[in-house]
Design brief:
Its cofactor is Zn(2+). By secondary structure, the chain is an alpha+beta fold. Helices cover 22% and strands 33% of the residues.
Length: 457
């Protein structure tokens, strides 16, 4: 055998592998590599870019007619939406002018249509929206009518239908929101509620509820001090992104002189009775009587012996005098029925309220009575029954207040407070769910590290 062929065959066999499977795989790889090399060798080379033939194409393009575009815009009538608020002393003409309305037929319709005339009776500050054409013709006008308590009651909508107008009223649909606020007393309660450090001050209606809610535990005339804090969760009602009224306080927390008082509104859905405020452990907070018939005032004369300011006679003063400006609202300190409302000797304008059992309260020297207050009128705790004055034997504006048990005057500051009946087992289970939510909200409102003793229950 040729030695050269022998050596070459051995080397080729070693390159292909020692096993039959290895030799097959190696041979396949070599075959594919040879095919690829051959394909690359016979493929034609692409021509250079400068050698590619170039062809120029010219085409006329039709530009849009500018005159047609302007004419189309002129044919498309422009519409404008305006919003204004009613100003004091506004006339219909003045309001429509500010709204961009120049439409005699619209004015005639508003003045003649019974429903549309409601626009002419809007209160100052109320919003009115209108859409007009480019020449001032009215397309539609919308507004909300409120009642005597400034509560929205209906929406009025005036619309153009061809050459005529129609007026329609719809019930108000309000969006309910729940808001949370935290405040610290630095000078006074009202200064704290008017602060807008978190973007908004508290509505006046909510402030009044805070005072009423905690007035059986805190005397807002004398108990407040710098550093006291309160957190409040309340509902508001909105229309078209504008708040129209505040609702009820859902929960409140007031820390006064290191002691924290908490209150949660609970109205059981399975009970026909109205709701009330409770502590977080489910105990009713509404007590028999408020600590004071006035929200803010000072005691000018206590329950004691004194020299009468007019007669000069030394005698017992069987009530408490609260100094306050004329016109300050006077609240019934408890639920009851008015047994007397009129003029009574030295008491001047006088109201007596009979409560349950043998309790009664008396309010003297009023400037006037609240509307609807007369003999037999039922009143609830906190209802306004009159206003501070100086009628009868009085030397200045103040309220003389008496608390009577079996017609015997007692010192109001020493009368034990009576609370409502507690929740039953089923009501308590439902209450705990509501209280847990409010407790979590309180935790979010409190400053970090804040702590205070809880009020005794």
């Amino acid at each position: 055998m040729n030695q050269t062929n022998q050596i070459t065959g051995k080397r080729l066999t070693s390159l292909l592998g020692t096993t039959r499977k290895g030799r097959i795989l190696s041979a396949s790889a070599i075959f594919l590599a040879v095919c690829a090399f051959g394909a690359a060798g016979v493929a034609p080379l692409a021509p250079d870019a400068p050698e590619i033939p170039q062809v120029s194409i010219a085409q006329d393009l039709e530009l849009p007619n500018l005159a047609d575009q302007i004419a189309a815009l002129q044919d498309d009538e422009q519409q404008f939406v305006h919003e204004e608020r009613v100003r004091a002393g506004d006339t219909l003409a003045a309001l429509l002018t500010r709204l961009g309305v120049d439409d005699a037929e619209a004015v005639k319709f508003i003045k003649s249509d019974k429903l549309a005339r409601g626009v002419m009776q809007l209160k100052s500050g109320k919003r009115v929206q209108a859409r007009t054409g480019q020449d001032g013709e009215l397309l539609w006008l919308r507004t909300t009518v409120v009642d005597g308590r400034d509560m929205p009651v209906k929406n009025i909508s005036i619309s153009r239908k061809g050459e005529r107008f129609t007026a329609e009223e719809t019930p108000v649909k309000l969006e309910r929101r729940v808001e949370m606020r935290a405040r610290e007393i630095t000078s006074s309660l009202y200064a704290a509620t008017d602060a807008n450090t978190d973007g908004s001050k508290l509505p006046d209606a909510i402030v009044a509820q805070i005072i009423e809610m905690f007035s059986t535990s805190i005397d807002f005339r004398s108990d407040l001090k710098r550093g006291d804090r309160f957190n409040v969760v309340y509902e508001t009602f909105w229309q078209d992104g504008v708040m129209v009224r505040a609702g009820r306080i859902l929960a409140g927390e007031f820390t006064n002189r290191g002691v924290t008082h908490q209150s949660v509104w609970f109205e059981d859905p399975h009970s026909k009775q109205g709701g009330g405020y409770y502590s977080l452990d489910g105990k009713a907070l509404k007590k028999a009587f408020l600590k004071s018939p006035l929200a803010f005032s000072r005691i000018s004369s206590g329950f004691s012996m004194r020299s009468h300011p007019i007669s000069g006679v030394w005698k017992a003063h069987k009530g408490i005098d609260y100094a306050a400006s004329t016109g300050t609202p006077i609240r019934a300190v408890g639920d009851g029925v008015v047994s007397f409302a009129g003029v009574k000797g030295g008491y001047g304008n006088f109201v007596e309220v009979k409560h349950w059992a043998n309790y009664s309260t008396a309010y003297a020297h009023m400037s006037k009575f609240a509307p609807g207050v007369r003999n037999g009128t039922k009143v609830s705790q906190g209802d306004v029954i009159g206003y501070v004055g100086s009628t009868g034997w009085s030397t200045g504006a103040h309220l003389h207040f008496e608390f009577r048990v079996a017609n015997q005057a007692k010192d109001p500051s020493k009368v034990a407070m009576i609370q409502q009946a507690p929740l039953n087992a089923a009501e308590m289970a439902r209450f705990r769910m509501a209280a847990a939510d409010m407790s979590h909200r309180f935790a979010l409102l409190r400053p970090s590290g804040a702590g205070a003793a809880m009020a005794a229950r």
